[in-house]
Design a protein that fits this description.
By secondary structure, the chain is of the alpha/beta class. The protein has helices at residues 12-23, 44-50, 62-74, 88-101, 113-126, 148-158, 225-237, 245-252, and strands spanning 2-7, 27-33, 55-58, 78-81, 105-107, 131-138, 181-182, 188-193, 199-207, 210-218, 241-243. It has a six-stranded parallel beta sheet, sandwiched between helices. Strands 7-8-6-9-10 form a five-stranded mixed beta sheet, with helices on one face.
Length: 263
């Protein structure tokens, strides 16, 4: 039985994770943690003093996730991180600490298996196109921009193509930011924040005479739980550091991705 703690348990994603863990036959909810709660643990430190925790799932805030991760890895608590906003430098520090402490850590900008497949397909398409841009759309309470999913997608595309803005003319923005932010491989990322969205992303590829669009839309936060449970199981068994659920999907294959327990 995997003893799971959920940090950010009162948040929208945290509540879904709590329900998914409680419904999983091979997991036990060891602790609910939320700084705003009166009837649960307020901090990871407080929970760790009382409960045995195999894996901690963190869906909190960008301002707190790095310190949370440092504490967990320093104290031998494996982590599944869904909070976005970590810098490249912070991710690299956590990678080194995970290896040093021999404690597993999974950081996933997106836990929807469909969104992860979208990212993997975009990486494949990038081999055959010289131009690409990303549009990501989220609810207007999301605090970081661009999304972690968009950043990870651009990184994956840049691994196979160093320049995805080939032939673009020199540009002058008459309104600052009109062309979005230029990221890895000069891929422009455009962030939309609007009530009504949960999470959507479209990767647009272009070449002479053709356009290819790869898009994923999340309509319900339950779509992330399949990936969260898969991440918990992998992290419990392994002591590796992983950035991106795509690596877990490649390791396990489609036959290991179970959906019946969430239906």
């Amino acid at each position: 039985m995997i003893r799971v703690a959920v940090c950010g348990a009162l948040g929208k994603m945290g509540q879904e994770v709590v329900c998914a863990v409680e419904a999983a036959e091979d997991m036990e909810l060891a602790a609910k943690i939320d700084i705003a709660a009166d009837n649960m643990y307020h901090t990871i430190e407080e929970a760790a003093r009382v409960e045995e925790i195999d894996v901690l799932v963190d869906f909190t805030q960008p301002k707190s996730i790095y310190e949370n991760a440092l504490f967990c890895l320093d104290n031998g608590i494996k982590m599944v991180i869904g909070t976005t906003g970590l810098t490249d430098e912070q991710i690299e520090c956590l990678r080194k600490l995970s290896k040093e402490k021999n404690t597993g850590c999974l950081i996933a900008p997106n836990f929807s298996t469909g969104a992860v497949l979208m990212m993997m397909f975009a990486q494949q398409a990038a081999r055959y196109f010289d131009n690409a841009e990303i549009i990501e759309l989220h609810h207007n309470q999301k605090k970081d921009a661009p999304s972690g999913t968009a950043i990870k997608t651009a990184q994956m595309m840049a691994e196979v193509k160093s320049d995805l803005a080939a032939g673009n003319c020199p540009e002058t923005e008459t309104i600052e930011g009109a062309r979005g932010g230029s990221s890895y491989a000069d891929i422009h990322i455009h962030s939309v924040r609007m009530p009504g969205y949960i999470a959507s992303q479209e990767v647009i590829f272009g070449s002479s005479g053709q356009i290819l669009k790869i898009r994923h839309d999340s309509m319900d936060r339950k779509c992330y739980m399949q990936g969260v449970l898969l991440g918990i199981r992998h992290t419990f068994k392994e002591n590796d550091f992983i950035y991106g659920l795509d690596h877990v999907l490649r390791c396990y294959g489609a036959t290991h991705v179970e959906t019946s327990e969430l239906s």
